User: Which sequence fits this backbone?
């Protein structure tokens, strides 16, 4: 067994045992220009680990025209679990003598553009978890858009994936369901989505910019 495969298998087992639904790794050198990480802290970290937690299918089915309190609580706890798992993977990597930088599951560092330190969805795509859908979320063949992600950047050698070349095709369930009319076959309107999320914060008493409607209806591979 090669060193890369052995490292990958150990980390994958750890992540899945912590409740993650997917684990993957990617070469992130091509994505580094988009990182918003200070002081070059990630400049020597060429691998990106993507871990994904599957949100409750039953809970998502309770979402119709916008978020509810139950989804808000679930969303928060999923992010906490992702961050805790990322910390455990980071500790393991460092014990093995390598460097690792965990990136929080839900942290905005550029509010104007709604960007985090890294784009978790892009790292997830590079790690082979799926493709970027019409709803601007990662679409996994098995789980649709119901995965939440966290990323660990590292210099530990790992087996890396080949990104998927699949697309949503003719499926337009997210566009038809979107309460902000932010999704079309050719465009995702970030400003329209953001405005609706801000509205939900006031009208639904949700203390975070979340919705969940397109997450609920996305079927993954096969579309309609």
Assistant:
């Amino acid at each position: 067994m090669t060193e890369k495969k052995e490292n990958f298998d150990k980390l994958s087992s750890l992540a899945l045992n912590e409740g993650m639904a997917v684990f993957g790794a990617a070469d992130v050198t091509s994505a580094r220009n988009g990182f918003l990480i200070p002081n070059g802290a990630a400049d020597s970290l060429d691998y990106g680990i993507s871990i994904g937690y599957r949100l409750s299918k039953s809970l998502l089915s309770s979402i119709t025209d916008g978020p509810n309190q139950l989804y808000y609580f679930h969303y928060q706890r999923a992010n906490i679990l992702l961050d805790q798992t990322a910390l455990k993977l980071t500790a393991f990597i460092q014990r093995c003598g390598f460097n690792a930088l965990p990136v929080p599951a839900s942290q905005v560092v550029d509010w104007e553009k709604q960007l985090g330190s890294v784009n978790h969805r892009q790292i997830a795509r590079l790690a082979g978890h799926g493709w970027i859908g019409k709803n601007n979320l990662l679409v996994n063949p098995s789980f649709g858009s119901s995965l939440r992600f966290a990323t660990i950047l590292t210099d530990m050698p790992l087996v890396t994936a080949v990104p998927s070349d699949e697309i949503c095709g003719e499926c337009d369930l997210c566009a038809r369901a979107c309460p902000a009319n932010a999704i079309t076959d050719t465009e995702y309107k970030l400003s329209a989505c953001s405005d609706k999320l801000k509205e939900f914060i006031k009208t639904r008493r949700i203390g975070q910019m979340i919705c969940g409607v397109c997450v609920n209806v996305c079927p993954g591979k096969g579309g309609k």
The longest strand covers residues 47-54. Helices lie at 3-17, 57-60, 69-95, 120-126, 173-177, 190-203, 213-217.
